[in-house]
Amino acid sequence: MATKGTENGRSSTSSVTQQVGSSLKDSPAVERALARSKLYLLLSWSYLYPEDDEFLDYLQSGELVEDGRAALNSLRAALPTPIDKETEEVLQGITDHFDAVEHWVSSEGVNWDIQDLRDEHRRVFSNVIALDCPPYETLFGNDHVFGQSYVMGDIAGFYSAFGVQLSQDIHERLDHLSVELEFLHFLAYKESYALCHDGPEKLKTVIEAEKKFVKEHVGRWVPLFSGMLKKKAEYGFYKTVADLTAQWVAFEIAYLSVTPQPYSETDYRPANFVSPEGTSFECGAQDKGNELSLLMNEVGAQEFLDKEKPESGQSGTA
Predict the structure, then answer these.
(1) Full domain range(s) for residue 78
(2) What is the CATH number of the domain that holds 91?
(3) Are strands 164-167 and 280-283 parallel, antiparallel or unpaired?
């Protein structure tokens, strides 16, 4: 799992595809990738259960808002000009949500201790899976365990193809929103690396993986989840995070020029799904216990992958 400080739009379709054919030292393209990577990471951190004071300190110090604004400003400056009205409205909405986080910190959050943040996380997400806003993709749009296994297998295939593995440090499933957002953080960071160090083929592989993962996963379930979270939280930090997540995913869908088929409320049919603990991932880690294989076997993912490899393909390591 990434740690704080380790790594530092709606554009047209061509703004993404042109990166493949442009110079690998194209500074605006690198800045866009790094900024998007950072924003994904900030959202990923926001959804994790606060095991210690690290995230609360980061929040109370104002660094989360500062880093978010810096990334957003960098992204805005690197987008092709002129920026269309719809994109500008989405970017302004994201800015407003960071302002709301800052206001919450100064008015309430500054006085919180770690137990307050844990209690708020439990209020919203519960100690068990909260069926009114579950942060797990496989609880959306699947009638039975076979559908869940198919989706889980596809997610596992993406992670495996890019060399990211499960970690025992953070006890979450691989379909948890925080894990999926961190995977997109990793892909966007890998895009910046590919622009500077790899050739067009590896760069194309990474960009296509970003598009496919947003189209087939995050872009399908996160819009509905964000609305459910907003209703459940009603106020406070996680309500603002829900708003911020919805706006950011909307931006990414447009930026990547993908067209997900988003779930509606009638598609939400939660089913019971039990997976082993320790199901998050870390980038570039060695497989010390073959945890990924164990989980893939548990959910039937390995059989799925044996039949159909994900289109994201193989990629060099960054």
Answers:
(1) 13-307
(2) 1.10.3480.10
(3) antiparallel
pLDDT digits (tens, 9 = 90+) for 64-82: 999 999 999 999 999 999 9
- For the chain, the domain total comes to 1
Residues linked to residue 136 through DSSP beta bridges, in sequence order = 176
- Rounded Cα gap, residues 206 and 187, in angstroms: 6
d(C-alpha 72, C-alpha 26), whole Å: 19
Using CA atoms, how far apart are residues 150 and 140, in angstroms rounded to an integer? 13
Whether 156 is in a domain gets the answer yes
Ranges 38-47, 137-146, 281-290, 301-310: which has the least confidence: 281-290
Residue 238 lies in a domain: yes
Query: Is residue 312 a part of any domain in this protein?
Result: no
| b (16+ CB within 10 A) / e for 51-65 | eeeebbebbbeeebb
Q: List the beta bridge partners of residue 165.
A: 282
Confidence (pTM): 0.78
Reported confidence tier of residue 130, pLDDT bands at 50, 70, 90: low
Name the packing angle between helices 27-47 and 236-255 (round to 10°): 150
Please tell me the distance from the alpha carbon of residue 40 to that of residue 8, in angstroms, as a whole number: 12
Which amino acid does the sequence have at 307? K
Task: Specify if 4 maps to a domain.
Answer: no
- Three-state DSSP state, 87: helix
Residue tagged 């209020």 (tokens): 123
For the stretch 256-269, pLDDT in tens is 999 999 988 877 76
